[in-house]
Amino acid sequence: MNSENMVYIDNQPVELSGEQNILTLVRKVGIELPTFCYHSELSIYGACRMCVVEIEGRGIVAACSTPPTPGIKILTNSPRVQRVRRTVLELLLANHDRECTTCERSNNCKLQDLAKRFGVRDIRFGERDVKLPIDDSGPSIVRDPNKCILCGDCVRMCSEIQGIGILNFANRGFKVQVTPAFNKSLAEVDCVNCGQCSAVCPTGALVVKSETAKAWKAIHDNNKVVVAQVAPAVRVALGEEFGTPAGEIVTGKAVSALKKLGFDKVFDTCIAADLTIMEETTELIDRLQKGEADAPLFTSCCPAWVKYAEHNGSELLKNLSTCRSPQQMFGSLVKRYWAKELGKDPKDIFVISIMPCTAKKYEASRPEFEVEGVRDVDLVLTTQELSQMIREAGLDFNALEPEAFDMPFGFTTGAGVIFGATGGVMEAALRAAYEMVTGDVLEQVNFEAVRGMAGLKEAAVNLKGKEVKIAVVHGLNNAKKLLEKLKTGEVKYDFVEVMACPGGCISGAGQPIAQNTEVKKARAKSIYNADKLSQLRKSQDNPVVAKFYEKWLQKPNSHEAHETLHTHYTTRARISGEEIQLLNAEKEQKVDVAVCVGTCCYLKGSYDTLKEFMKEAEKSGLKDQINLHATFCLENCEEGPSVRVNDEVISGITPDKVSSLINTKVLDELNAVKK
Amino acid sequence: MIDSRTKLDSLQSVWKAGYDKEKARILICAGTGCIANGSLKVYEAIKAEVEKRNAYVTVEMLLEGKEGTSVVTSGCHGFCEMGPLVRVEPGGILYTRVKPEDAADLVAALMEGKEPVDRLLYRHPVTGAVYAEEHEIPFYHNQERTVLGNCGVIDPEELREYIAKGGYQALAKVITEMKPAEVCQEILKSGLRGRGGGGFPTGRKWEATLMSPGDKKYVVCNGDEGDPGAFMDRSVMEGDPHKVLEGMAIAGFAVGADEGYIYVRAEYPLAIQRLKKAVKEALDNGLLGNNILGTGFNFKIKIKEGAGAFVCGEETALIASIEGERGMPRPKPPFPAQSGLWGKPTLINNVETFANVPIVINRGAEAFRSIGTEKSPGTKTFALTGQVANTGLIEVPMGITLREIVFDIGGGLRDGKQFKAVQIGGPSGGCLTEKHLDMPLDFDSLLSAGAMIGSGGLVVMDQKTCMVEVARYFMNFTQNESCGKCVPCREGTKRLLEILERAVNGEGRAEDVEILEDLAEAVKDGSLCGLGKTAPNPVLTMLKYFKDEYIAHVIDKKCPSGECKALAAYAIDPELCKGCTKCSKVCPVSAISGEVRNPFVIDPEKCIKCGACVSTCPFKAIKEG
Q1: Residue range B66-85: average pLDDT?
Q2: Which residues of B fall within a CB distance of 8 Å from A78?
């Protein structure tokens, strides 16, 4: 050993080999320094002060943010170190809402773990003296500031990995809080419900909204046929909750458990994934033929990504595949066709998705996925929620006899399974596109270039002389970077897969909480293994899918398929719910008029347009028939000032045109109401 | 445009001649303290009076060849206690507490060559001696004003006056004669240490930034002076802004930066206004900007207004704030010299440090070292406040004793009160006691006493001050100003405050004594940045030097100084009580009872310690304690 490159940890010599910080070095020698705010994927924050060590001659330092220098003598358990660590724990516990027994994260909480590990029995300080309101406004995530230890993990996750940044710190001193801007609720901000904040939260301050009670209620309702669909990523993670090694496939046991819980049918979402491939690949080929103007095509399986696109890129919505996600395709097929075959009214079928994902809860609740008051997917449970139900029912998961999925939605291909990992949708689509374009049989089905954990994966695929440029990104910040490069023209692609969670669905926030990337890698490996072992590995080879087309859907992208399997998007770039009402129509026959006072329209004089409206409404005697609002952005900034009359946006309404607008459009609308 | 060193030199001699030739100058202090006391009205009145007399009048410095009186608004003289201050040249006569109606007498005395106006001269509060000339007043006599040398003497809004006094000569010397490494070496040799509180050797910071690889580097001036009661930096920025700019430009040359930021809190509007004007004038005259003095050296300065977060005085938080982020410190390393503003190597020094730079260059490192102590050369400014006769801004050589500051410069305690302690360094510092009175003050001696120079607040306290309450006051300040990032500071200061509040409210518990000390040590050890690491200092020094007082609060439920109302206990001395019934009538809670002409008694259970009886008793029979 080279003595110039040595440090001493608790008097033991250790050789340095390029460690970036003392924390990794100490952990390497088998000493588990405790941390709250250190995550290898996130930037170093140095705030929790749990990983402190003493360096002789230098005093106490945080191991995470101090690089080791040769010759230093590190003490990991000196009296001073112990005092800081125990005090920090005690201080955190003093200010923590210690309702452990009823906490979502009980037994899965870092604060609880460390309190136990360091034997904190007595807290010398006062109790938490405020009870802040809990935010459960969103469809997926519940935020309880009373349990927050302000480690900032969620803040960094949301901004550094997801590129969104809806959470940040506010206030000073003891009043500091992690909160969305202006103390808004999660439902009011650009949160995409990916839930990665909750996946890194060490306590119960950010948790997935639990809906197991609704599931039980449906199961216990004798009038309902309760149908489960199980997403591909669930099968490689559910076992972890019951002590199996990370990544072990437990498909059969999951089916068996669901049956025992009382589900009438247990189906596989993978078959809907095969269907997605048929639809999306057809759409891709169509776009490729139309040429560059329509490129690239973005995948739309990930609801968090779809919402991100709706918030941040109204101009790219036309590039987003119109295909519904496999979850929604499944729900649509079951409610529209399968119910009929069963002789049931769709409202008596209750579809519960078992998903690795928190955003799927939000997706299922989107208004467009409903036919005559009946939801396509009634309820979404995460892998964690399912494991909770299994425990509640007292099932010995590991002893369960594996069972097979029910037919017809149980027949799947390897292509459907790999949807669970980043690059999987792309690979499955390429397997289909090759055969659809060339007419040849694809022998080598593995596209290694799109696999793995690299943040951006790019490849060029030759389809019968036509080179198709593809990219795969996961983690929305990677998507954000890619979009910027697309905008500047730095890169060009034909087809892009985006998954919001780093690693894809296997790392979804509904999965058992993974402490490190190794777990995620094991899950991905298992997914590809399942694909390898599948008899059929291409979506287009799925005979049941072929049958669906024959029976119900005609052919990919047919009118019927469009009705059932495709969707549309809405821009969400603007502040909503912040209109200012100026006139309140009292008569029953009335018309809504909104004048845009967003920046562009305002600069073009929309404020004068608004004043003119007030004046003209009075003059024309229609004051009590016009609901007049000032609104923020009608998305037609180029041609402002814009005015919305009922649902129609009319642009270029300078003050001099107000009078004629009232005499034409506004009166027309009023007359229409009369009739 | 001053485009060469020769041009600067010739202008200086011309302007200096003009400056010296002035027959008379009346300088009205326009520092924040004096303005608050009405000095602008005094300025108007004096100006009107001068105009009425039709003297040679300009409101600016006189140009060469003309003689007359000029009325100038100057920067802070430091003796804020006695403001508004008016200084009259020649003669250096200092008038104190001047009112607008004094203008006629004051101008008459000057124009007619009469004796100075006696009623406006400074009178020593203890000896009663009258002083006419500023430098003779004990407050100034014992000071060593170099950094503050121009403050109160020149018009801070006039570049010409700064140049007349030798301004920008140091910059000219550096950029025409020296190499960057030589400049760093000179600063290192001078032994100059950071005046922001920590006392890190300035030259080492400069060298580290110079050595740091990178094409783009920054110089940042920390003007986020946030300690309660401290206003040294504000006075320099208000009274001599060009000195700060010159120091920064020299630093820019030395470390290879072409851009600088001055971070000033928005609560210092006058400092901001004067700095902005100074930057503009320097830019217009070619002393900042591109190709300074024709040497090819470029340096620009931007002013950034801070929103008043105390923590932004911490260098990494300050940098984050300039970048538009929330002002929160980040772990070091990397140090700003390696990765600072926008990730570029950044030199960050305090206002007073930069103001010392031209002095070091002009006088040379050796001469600089001749003042102060070996390890802490030079001078230090302090804001002297509290129970001392003369309060204000002072500048003293390092190594001066506390006794000299309190009793010579400060004139001893007010109204014959007895000295108890000084709190030095604000919320990051600690208290020093009678036994420290003869200790030479420098960076290291204060650290070993458990305090620190901090930014230089110096509060003198008498026997009536409760040290537990002082510790509570500062803990309340740091708790409110903690950025909330690291656990020991955010949660620890809250709990320290909780324990101290219990003590002063008479709810202390026996175990608190041990918990307080243990927690204070943990916060000191465990915190992320300087704010948290020093936050327990007031508590720890209180425990070190006044532990009895704390124990009296917690165990005996008594406040020995009598300051903590909740702990006060009132009793009637039966020897003195004549049974006049006055006290029982004034008591709002009917806690006092007795028979007429017999001694009365106070029921401690009912008493709310309002003190109303004490001031009512004609026989001084009611005792507190």
Answers
A1: 68
A2: none
pLDDT class of A576 with cuts at 50, 70, 90: low
On whether ipTM exceeds 0.90, the answer is: no
Å between A91 CA and nearest CA of chain B: 6
- The predicted model gives A169-196 an average pLDDT of 93
Q: Which of B483, B511, B526 is closest, CB to CB, to A49?
A: B526
Whole-number Å distance between alpha carbons of A426 and B600? 95
Counted residue by residue, chain A has a size of 675
Please determine, for residue B57, whether its predicted confidence score (pLDDT) is greater than 70. no
Q: Select from A88, A118, A156, A171 the residue whose CB has the most chain B CBs within 10 Å, as the one to mutate to test that interface.
A: A88
Kindly determine whether residue B484 and residue A173, on different chains, have CB atoms separated by under 8 Å. Answer: yes
Kindly give, in sequence order, each residue whose CB lies less than 8 Å from that of residue A206, ignoring residues fewer than 6 positions away.
A141, A142, A143, A144, A154, A197, A198
Among partner residues A44, A65, A88, which is closest to B487 by beta-carbon distance? Answer: A88
Q: Does domain B379-462 sit in CATH 3.10.20.600? A: yes
Neighbouring C-beta atoms of residue A100, cutoff 10 Å: 17
The CATH 3.40.950.10 domain(s) of chain A lie at: 213-395+411-564
What is the pLDDT, as a whole number, of residue A112?
A: 96
CATH 3.30.70.141, applies to A580-674: no
B423-464 pLDDT, tens digit per residue, is 998 898 899 999 999 999 999 998 888 888 877 889 999 999
CB within 8 Å: B491 and A91: yes
Domain B467-554 fold: de novo design (two linked rop proteins) (1.20.1440)
CATH number of this structure's domain B568-624: 3.30.70.20
Q: Which CATH class is domain A3-77?
A: alpha beta
d(C-alpha A325, C-alpha A591), whole Å: 38
| Average pLDDT, rounded, for chain A | 92
CATH topology of domain A213-395+411-564: Fe-only Hydrogenase (Larger Subunit); Chain L, domain 3 (3.40.950)
User: Could you tell me which CATH class the domain B167-369 is placed in?
Assistant: alpha beta
- Strand duo A297-298 + A495-499: pairing: parallel
Q: Which CATH architecture has domain A92-208?
A: 2-Layer Sandwich (3.30)
Cβ-proximal residues to B168 (8 Å cutoff; 6+ apart), any chain: B8, B162, B242, B246, B287
Six-digit token string for B411: 């004139």
End-to-end Cα separation, chain A, in angstroms: 94
Q: Residue A129: its pLDDT value, please?
A: 87
Q: Inter-chain contact B488–A125, Cβ cutoff 8 Å? A: no
Judging contacts by C-beta atoms under 8 Å, the chain A residues touching residue B333 are 65-67
Set of chain B residues whose Cβ sits within 8 Å of the Cβ of A169: 326, 328, 484-485
Domain-wise residue ranges, chain B: 12-141, 167-369, 379-462, 467-554, 568-624
Is B379-462 in the same CATH topology as B167-369? no
Which H or E run contains B447?
Answer: helix B443-448
Least confident of A523-537, A647-661, B292-306: A647-661
Closest approach of chain A CAs to the CA of B485, in angstroms? 6
Which sequence positions of A are flagged as catalytic?
Answer: 280, 283, 301, 321, 360, 363, 368, 505
pLDDT of B319-335, one tens digit each?
A: 999 999 999 999 999 99
**Secondary structure (3-state) at B419:** strand
Taking the model in full, what pTM does it have?
Answer: 0.87
Question: Topology of B12-141 in CATH?
Answer: Glutaredoxin (3.40.30)
- Residue B139: Cβ within 10 Å count: 27
Residue of B490, B496, B513 to mutate when probing chain A, most A C-beta within 10 A = B490
Kindly report the nearest CA distance between residue A172 and chain B, in angstroms: 5
- CA A249 to CA A231: how far, in whole Å? 13
Q: Would you list which residues of chain B are within 8 Å, Cβ to Cβ, of chain A? A: 309, 311, 326, 328, 330-333, 479-488, 490-495, 498, 511, 515, 518-519, 521-523, 525-528
The whole-angstrom distance between B492's CA and the closest CA on chain A is 7
Q: Considering only the beta carbons, identify the residue of A64, A66, A88 that sits closest to B526.
A: A88
Distance, in Å, from the CA atom of A369 to the CA atom of A363, rounded to the nearest integer, reads 8
Question: Residue B22: its pLDDT value, please?
Answer: 64
